[in-house]
Write a structure and sequence with these properties.
With about 325 residues, the chain is α/β, with parallel strands linked by helices. It contains eleven helices and ten strands. α4 packs across α11.
């Protein structure tokens, strides 16, 4: 019989199914993937989880999936629950990324990502700086000028304290010569609540991944004044911060982690599952649709990347007065 990629994947997943049957009572076979999102519905991690579910189901790599949301403090509320209560589940994955690395440092969290099993970095995304359509800020330069004049009168919404949105705002403040402690940053548990604050006129601007604001921008309900990319992005008619004379760029990334306590065979099965998904045309199409850059990095290489990111982000947060 010819060994196809699908045959090899099914063989790997059979290992997980068998292990699940003999493991803890709460563990299920890989037929149902359990996705743990340590953030509120509607944000980038939630979108990532539901896109993973959609692609894996439509490509017949799993039968069903269940998404569990546990929001709070950039993922540091949910992380201990995932580590302790989901321990040993061979069919479980947590969504996380740069935001969580920063939040762990900023909140001096007792549980960090070394307690998980890194599976794969999946996507990268530049951030967008947006304002309500009737905002007086027409450019990023206008926003920076307002910060220089009176930072307390320019509240900016974003994700949890210490996350990528907060880091970018701190970098903008630094470019404006404003100490981080004087900035008015309004932290939310996810992209959904931050959008509501913007649409309700409760904040002057917002920062998040472009994908989170994309639909509202297209609908004319929000206006993007800058992205944190190093260059203009295809299909996005928004200038970079650097184009506007602000020497700032930032790259957000997202990935998946398995819980501690799984076996080497179970880890390999998850690597195969996610690696196959990341290469699929369905996943690539979803990334293009959502403005995500596909940057897969698996297993040990991903674990090393997280180690280096933790060191880099700790230095940035310290410099910005956030750690």
């Amino acid at each position: 019989m010819k060994l196809t990629k699908r045959t090899l994947l099914q063989a790997s997943l059979a290992v997980v199914s068998a292990a699940a049957m003999s493991g803890p009572a709460q563990a299920q076979a890989i037929d149902q993937l359990q996705l743990f999102v340590p953030a509120a519905p509607g944000g980038g991690w939630d979108q990532t989880a539901r896109t993973i579910e959609q692609v894996l189901r439509t490509t017949n790599l799993i039968k069903t999936a269940q998404v569990t949301n546990v929001p709070g403090a950039g993922g540091t509320v949910g992380l201990p629950r995932f580590v302790n209560q989901w321990r040993g589940r061979p069919n479980a994955l947590m969504i996380g990324g740069m935001v969580m690395v920063g939040a762990i440092i900023a909140n001096k969290a007792a549980v960090d990502l070394t307690r998980t099993v890194p599976i794969a970095r999946l996507t990268g995304e530049f951030l967008a700086v947006v304002v309500p359509p009737d905002s007086p800020f027409k450019t990023a330069g206008d926003l920076v000028a307002a910060l220089k004049a009176d930072p307390g009168k320019v509240p900016v919404a974003g994700g949890s304290a210490g996350g990528s949105d907060h880091i970018l705002f701190g970098m903008l403040g630094k470019a404006a010569g404003v100490p981080a402690g004087k900035l008015s940053y309004v932290a939310f548990a996810g992209g959904g609540p931050a959008q509501a604050a913007l649409l309700g006129g409760h904040v002057a601007a917002g920062i998040s991944g472009y994908g989170e604001f994309g639909e509202q921008i297209k609908a004319g309900k929000l206006r993007a004044i800058a992205i944190s990319a190093d260059a203009r992005q295809p299909g996005i008619d928004v200038p970079t911060l650097k184009e506007q004379g602000i020497d700032v760029e930032l790259f957000n990334w997202r990935g998946v982690f398995a819980p501690p306590g799984i076996t080497a065979a179970e880890r390999e099965a998850m690597l195969t599952l996610i690696g196959t998904m990341a290469k699929s045309s369905a996943w690539q199409a979803e990334c293009e649709k959502r403005g995500w850059t596909s940057i897969p990095l698996l297993g040990d290489a991903y674990a090393k990347y997280i180690e280096n990111e933790t060191t880099r982000i700790a230095a940035i947060l310290k410099d910005l007065g956030l750690a």
